[in-house]
Amino acid sequence: MIRPLLASLPLAMLLAQPAMAKTCTPTWVSGWASSQFRPTGDAALPAGTLKDQSLRQIVRPSIAGDRLRVRISNLAGTAPLHIAGVSIARAPASTSPAIDPGTLISLRFDGSPDLIVPAGADYLSDPVSLPVAALDNIAVTIRYQGEPEQTSHPGSRATSWHLPGDHLTDTAMAGAASFDHWFNLAALEVERCAPARLVVALGDSITDGKGSTTNGNDRWTDRLAQRLQADPKRRDIAVVNQGIGGNRLLNDGLGPNALARLDRDVLAQPGVTHLVLLEGVNDLGTLTRDAPVSVEGHKAHVARIIGAYRQIIARAHARGIKVIGATIMPFVGNDYYHADAQNEADRQAVNAWIRTPGHFDGLVDFDRATRDPARPDRLRPAYDGGDALHPNPAGYRAMGDAVPLTLFD
Predict the structure, then answer these.
(1) Between 20 and 30 A from 325 (CA), which of 81, 131, 141, 157?
(2) How far is the C-alpha of 336 from the C-alpha of 338, rounded, in Å?
(3) Among the three residues 187, 215, 247, which one is the final residue of a domain in this structure?
(4) How far apart are CA 152 and CA 141, in angstroms?
């Protein structure tokens, strides 16, 4: 019965069938993300800073899309987080709280303007139609009800603004106070009709961008995103930065260790296909920061670092994610870690393992890109941010330029 039926259809209808079959299959991908955790010490805000306040934070998706949703985090909370409302809009710049009023949208959560996020949980907003280009400035404004427990990303290298009361629709937020942290904003996810891939950069303060320009978006991950968007063949690749200052593989630092946060910060990101892993300098440095250790202690520490790499690779491979190993950059001359010849030997041993084919799925040789040719145990002077550990903006640019884009093909 099928053939006679098809034969009886008008030619125009038959010709239309292939076009009708090319319907869009929307997919979600993380366009921007920040690793959230409980801030301590100077990273925490004074009590009352966010009580009944509106907080405006500006972020940049690394890929274009048609619809957006945000992920609000109460990861460090021990009680439910009450949010009175959230709005989203395009922003003309990242250096002021002003927004484009014609793009302002009030977000909903299960159809409601307010939400209660359970302790330790994240919550996605309902999607909204707000087409964005890659590297647009997007402002997300959160209105707190009461005083929130602090869940944040302290090393934002981006300014956030806050005022008492309801300023969800305030286009200027004149007179707002500011600080350079992100709070409770874990991700901006982008929906696209076109396919997408996601590169997650997991790392420490060098990935987080210490020494980069506040509001300058010149971390190495920003440079990588710019290069991908400048390449017509690779504009479907997003990049998110999951760096935390002081992060380590083996122990907690300012935030949880890399193994502890792998599931949440990498494996759970929608669309993830690749992981670039730059971790280990803080593990190497802290080993002898307070007291020397034996030669056997050094060897055991290197073995544990490599074991952590193996764990991350295995867990990522189980999700079909390719893992790109990044070599650890020099840090001799840093006053905090005061690395000696044995620390440098440890770094060389770890980097030799990273470079050995068959361990990682690819290599980014940040060591080679940033070391001083005359003194390879130190950063190149032109790239040194001043502490012999963190690059300056020129160094971050060199790092971003050192990533082979073919790794993601």
Answers:
(1) 157
(2) 6
(3) 187
(4) 15
